[in-house]
Amino acid sequence: MEGVIDISWLQLSVFSLTLLIPAFICRHLKINLEKEILISIFRMALQLTMVGFYLSYLFQLNLLIVNIVWLVIMVLIGSLSIIDKARLPKKALWLAVSSGLFAGCVPVLLTLCIIIIQPVPFYSTQYMIPLAGMLLGNTLSGNIVALQNLFSAFTIRKNEYEGAIALGASPQYASRLFVQDAFKKAIAPILASMTTIGLVTLPGMMTGQILGGAAPVTAVKYQFLIMVAIFVVLTVSLLITIKMVLRSCLSKEGKVLVSFIDEETLDN
What we know:
By secondary structure, this protein is mainly alpha-helical. 78% of the residues lie in helices and 0% in strands. It has twelve helices and no strands. The protein is globular and about 65 Å long.
């Protein structure tokens, strides 16, 4: 099979002109996202360029301590991104979200590296960092959806929650339906993706490996492996994050701490 076909910077620049299409659509719909799109694209280009050179350097170093530090940075940035996109207070929730991401990602990542793939050494940067990136990256959107729906429920269905508390229900029981709805909505996209994968879609990892010259069967194995890993990491991180968030923002009497919920933000 052929190796990877390189793409010139000129070709990449020319293809980037297609971004004018979504910009035009946003202007046509008058949703004023042009500036946000421009900033996002610029940040993506800058970050990808930097990480491309940096990963090349990391691959040469291949040190466990450097990989651990980089993984911690990824988790922290990911948690801040989740809170920011969910429009929630960072100071109040970053520990809960970071803990959920870390507890969900690290055990699965170690299982992949030590037991399943078994690179030498097991902390090989070539495997550990890209795998961690895929696990965390595909977990972010689920956590955003969960937190948005959870906190919105406390605002929109406030009477329902307060009524349950008044009848003697514990805060955990009174918020149980909110948690269930948030969890279901958070995992719905990945369940839909898993249902249609291979028939409707060819995922990025599988496509990338095939384009890189790997045998289709090998690419399928890796894709199945990573999809299972992503689903496990997502569900574990959601459970831990939601439990820790509720413990932080609900008093023992069931009172919702206003400082944790910005109703004006949620309404927007």
